[in-house]
Structure formats: C-alpha cells, structure tokens
Amino acid sequence: MTTPRWLSTEEQQLWRMILSATRKMERTLDETLVENHNLTTSEFAVLVTLSEATGQQMRLRDMCQELDWDRSRTSHQVTRMDKKGLVAKVKCAGDARGVNVEITPEGERRLKDAVPAHVETVRQLVFDPMEERHMEGLRSYLTAVLNSNTCIEINNQRAAEL
C-alpha cells in the first residue's frame, strides 16, 4: 500500500472551500426550484435533457450517459416523474426491451416556467461574483478534472490490492 500524499494546509483550505461552494450552489439551486416551481434539481436536469433532445425524447440508456447517472438512478427518477405526469415512458419501436422517455406538455410547461428564475440564480450565484479574467482558467481547470482518469486509476489500484 502506498503512503497517502497528504494535502498541504493551503490545499486543504482550498479543498474545503470547493466543497462548501459546491454545496452552497447545489442547495441554492435546489431550494429555488423546489420553492418556486415544485421541481427538484434532478427533475429539472431530466426535463432540460429531454427538451434539448431531437423530438424531445431520448432512449433511457442515452439519458443515463447524457446525465452521467447510473441506470438505476435514471430509471427510478424517470418512473417518479412519469407518475407526476412530467415525462412519459414509451416502448421503443423494434426493440421490446428499449424504453424511450419523452417530455409531456406538463413537463414542458413546468420547465419553461422554471428556466428564467433558474438562469437568474445561476447568474447571481456563479457568474456575477466571477471576474471575466477567471473564466478561462476555471474552464481549463474543470476540463482537466472532467477528463481525468483518476477514478479509473484508483479503482484499478484497489482491484490490484485485493
């Protein structure tokens, strides 16, 4: 087993700031959507994904990939939203096992009602405090994090240790 590469004091402080800022953003966005539009951030994400898809529908497996959620989470979320009338599950033509998910008129209406306040919250919370000169650095950093294979490397290392 390798020795952990402990964080320096400065790194630990920055890491905790990242966690706090992420929680604040998630909490604020969720509260705004729930209080003003009775939508969770997960419901909002599904509705946005469907609204941007060709024909406002998508195969469930493609939705998993688009949202970066596992199949179980996506399936349960879609089932809950189907019961609320926000989306509809439709069998795929020519594939008995496949499921398409489509936005309903109610889902589309709720999304259109929620988008302006959501965008304004994002603007106030994320972009108004950010200086223009920081945007490219942040974009570059987040791209590097998202393109990192660290999770794969850690999982492979754990498997090798077993």
Can you describe this structure?
- There is one protein chain.
- The protein has a three-stranded antiparallel beta sheet with strand order 1-3-2.
- It starts with 8 loop residues before the first helix and ends with a helix.
- It has seven helices and three strands, in the order ααβααββααα.
- With 162 residues, the protein is mainly α.
- It folds into two domains: 12-129, Winged helix-like DNA-binding domain superfamily/Winged helix DNA-binding domain (Arc Repressor Mutant, subunit A); 131-162, no CATH class.
- A hairpin with a 2-residue loop joins strand 2 (87-92) and strand 3.
- It is globular and about 55 Å long.
- The model has no long low-confidence stretch (mean pLDDT 91).
- The chain is 70% helix and 11% strand.
- This is MarR family transcriptional regulator.
- Residues 11-147 form the HTH marR-type domain.
Described by strand count, sense and barrel closure, the largest sheet is: 3 strands, antiparallel
**From the alpha-carbon coordinates, what is the Rg to the nearest angstrom?**
20 Å
The secondary-structure element order is: HHEHHEEHHH
Which CATH class of the largest domain? Mainly Alpha
What is the correct CATH architecture of the largest domain?
Orthogonal Bundle
Proportion of residues in extended strands: 5-15%
> Distance between termini?
11 Å
How many structural domains are formed by the residues? Answer: 2
Judging from the principal axes of the Cα atoms, what is the shape?
globular
Helix content: over 70%
Low-confidence parts: none
Which structural class do the helices and strands define?
A: mainly alpha
Read across the widest sheet, the strand sequence of neighbours is 1-3-2
Q: How many beta-strand runs? A: 3
Mean pLDDT: 91
CATH superfamily membership of the largest domain, which one?
Winged helix-like DNA-binding domain superfamily/Winged helix DNA-binding domain
The CATH topology of the largest domain: Arc Repressor Mutant, subunit A
GO biological process, one term: response to stress
Pfam family, one: Staph_reg_Sar_Rot
Keywords: DNA-binding, Transcription, Transcription regulation
Domain HTH marR-type: 11-147
